[in-house]
Amino acid sequence: MEADIKDPYLAGGLPEHWDSPHTPLEATFVCVLKPSLEKRGLRLIINQSRGIRRYDVHELILTDEDDAGPGGEVNRIAYIGFVEFLRGGLLVAGQSVAVNGEAVGEIAGFDETHMPNHQNIVLKGTPRVSGYDRRYRLGDKVTFIPLCGED
């Protein structure tokens, strides 16, 4: 085994990896959240992707910080809600996210504060408004659009 194995994420990730087709994911709200915070201090992991299992429940959080991305910290947030995934697949930083067909933002990265209970999926977009104030409802559909579809 090679003694000098390097983590590709530490060297800027694997951008060509995301040119591979992957399935769009859908989820539905199981909880819609109200609060917003100015100094949350979420630490996004350096990894650009996360595997998602069918029926996983994870939290969506929205930030309006332009520089939010893998390996960074996020402070200004609005809680969107908890969603249950309808199938397994892959989420990648940069993917667009829509609720009921309306764009919300793109995946900025992932925070593991509450793992193994749930993952925080941090979205980047404006306006920074909570799921409750956006009038999202239980059962509303969330779509995660892949960076690359099938050829």
Question: How would you characterize this protein structure?
Answer:
The chain has one domain. The chain is 0% helix and 41% strand. It has no helices and twelve strands. Strands 1-7-5-11-10-9-12 form a seven-stranded mixed beta barrel. The N and C termini lie far apart (36 Å).
Keywords:
151 residues; mainly beta; seven-stranded mixed beta barrel; two-stranded antiparallel sheet; 12 strands; 0% helix; globular
What's the helix and strand layout?
Blueprint: E1 25-32, E2 36-37, E3 42-43, E4 49-52, E5 57-63, E6 73-74, E7 77-85, E8 89-92, E9 96-99, E10 102-111, E11 120-124, E12 141-145
Task: Give me a quick take on this structure.
With 151 residues, the protein is an all-beta fold.
Q: How can the largest sheet be summarized?
A: 7 strands, mixed, barrel
- Compute the number of strand runs: 12
The helix content is under 10%
- State mean pLDDT (0 to 100 scale): 89
Shape: globular
How many discrete domains?
1
What string, H for helix and E for strand, traces the elements in order? EEEEEEEEEEEE
* Number of DSSP helical runs: 0
Summing up helix and strand content along with how strands pair, one would put the structural category as mainly beta
Biggest sheet: strands side by side, in what order? 1-7-5-11-10-9-12
Low-confidence stretches: none
Beta-strand content: 35-45%
Terminal CA distance reads: 36 Å
Radius of gyration: 15 Å
